[in-house]
Write a structure and sequence with these properties.
Number of helices of chain A: 12
Distance between the termini of chain B: 29 Å
Largest sheet of chain A: none
CATH superfamily of the largest domain in chain A: MetI-like
Shape of chain B: elongated
Number of domains of chain A: 2
Radius of gyration of chain A: 24 Å
Structural class of chain B: mainly alpha
Helix content of chain B: 55-70%
Oligomer: heterodimer
Number of strands of chain B: 0
Number of strands of chain A: 0
Radius of gyration of chain B: 22 Å
Shape of chain A: flat
CATH class of the largest domain in chain A: Mainly Alpha
CATH topology of the largest domain in chain A: MetI-like fold
Strand content of chain B: under 5%
Amino acid sequence: MKAYLVRRGLVALPSLFVVTALVFVATRVLPGDPAVLLAGDFATPETVAALRAKWGLDRPVPVQYAVFLAHLVRGDLGTSIVSDLPVLDEILQRFRVTLTLAAAAIAVAVAVGLSAGVLGATRPYSGWDYGGMVLAMVGVSTPIFWSGMVLILLFAVRLGWLPSGGAGSWRAFVLPAVSLGFFAAGIIARQTRSALLDALRQDYIRTARAKGVSERVVVDRHALRNALVPVVTVVGLEFGRLLGGAVLTETVFSMPGLGSFLVVSIFKRDYPVIQGIVLWLALSFVLLNVLVDVLYAALDPRVRYA
Amino acid sequence: MRPWIHASATPEATSGPRPSPGVLPLRLGGGGLALAWRRFRRHRGAQAGLGVVLAFVLLAVLAPVIAPYGPTDADLERRLDPPSPSHWLGMDQQGRDLLSRILYGGRISLTIGVIAVGVAAGAGVPLGSVAGFRGGWFGGVLMGFVDILLSFPAILVAIVIVALAGPGLRNAMIAIGISQMPAYARLAHAEVIRIRAEAFVDAARALGLPEARILLRHVLPNAAGPLIVQSTLNLAGAILSAAYLGFLGLGAQPPTPEWGTMLSDGRTYLQTAPHVAVYPGLAVMLVVLGFNLFGDGLRDALDPRATQR
């Protein structure tokens, strides 16, 4: 197990390195000079040059990259051009909001998706099944920002039950989590349904039924436990997608998370911040993938740590 | 007797490459296409999806004819007017007819979808199939890169690319294409590896055919089915991504009547004039739902093994 974790981590390292290189090169090669942009319309060439020197933008790109990497391994992501604060602090502060949102959304998605999937698989081709599958299809097809807006319209504007934005209290997370979770619920429902249907067709289920085990126990203990293995993978992958989708939800609900921060930084061409966020997210996804693999192996004894 | 032809991957069952003397001919009689069509006909959701897609294509093509007003014609007196007999979906924040803008917007969304999927397939399929066909360290390194890209959510890849390349419709299309590319590469890779092991590839090798010809004429046509299903589903994803980018201000720029951009502009008036934001979003949802349903049914029809029933 330990050896597996170590090897899995080693495999992840080069991908992180490739990401740093790609992001770094892309931010330097593409048009748009942050120094010119931030100095303003009336800046003298001297001001621009001074800004460039301050951020090290006047040095050759390979040198900039070496400096960047040297700082990176020490956990230093540089300082924001806009706010002059350390990028890592800015990220950590906002990542809490994004992580809370994604966790709440995946909880909604698992609760809804799992129930709909089990309901459908245990009563295949019934009204429940069709209803669930239609809902799943609509969920997958609904734009995240649209469901968010409709929820705001209904529950914040019309009914006034919940706040339409921010991240002040848990109530502010309800609508965004439902909006974001609805999207993933469809995929989880479909995966659960097909995996459970598959499991219910196995011989050991017939054996269990022949022994006179109640249907509830057959489904819960025998079938669902086996069906959950692929579902866990999907939940893990969906969690990653929700972290990405949070960019939209945070924008719709004006939440101070990492996603909305990324969008704002893009418009301000705050390179250190864009770079930092992308790297941070890359690290999150790599970790998440490792976690899913480990969980998969733990759930299914047939998967060896080989 | 051509036992190596799979109903799941018959080129004629799709609009894939035409058969030519070098291609394995398809048995249509009682075979691939007819069977796939029968399965498709039984799939009510798929038919509904195809209907929705065709309706949107028709509306987009005919937009200049059927749209009651021009997409940028503004009547400032009637800004944010709710739906009325003369303006079925109401007016937007600049006094433009929302229905007309949504109809024209369909042209943009569908174009983005097709071009983005073209970019994705055009880059991903050659990459994945060559990596799969050649194998070895070359294929390993290639797929290693693909896996790195694949570990990121597509929408985030697209956002980052547009962020770096600059906002705009053209960059958005390319970015969405690149973000979908790894999925194609993965699928093509898997398909090619599966087909590579078939006896007819050995037969082609034994005949002394050049590698490129074996890949293009014998292997890839048999992978066409799954790739076309993937493309249908990717069209849904690309249209959704384009709307997301437009919504974030990174895609099409105003006054282009792009659905995501329209929705983003209308968001400010959510309290007073919700129709401005709600209808463009509904259009996105419907067309994406159409493609998803259609793609789902197509997969069930072309690949019986994928069917869950």
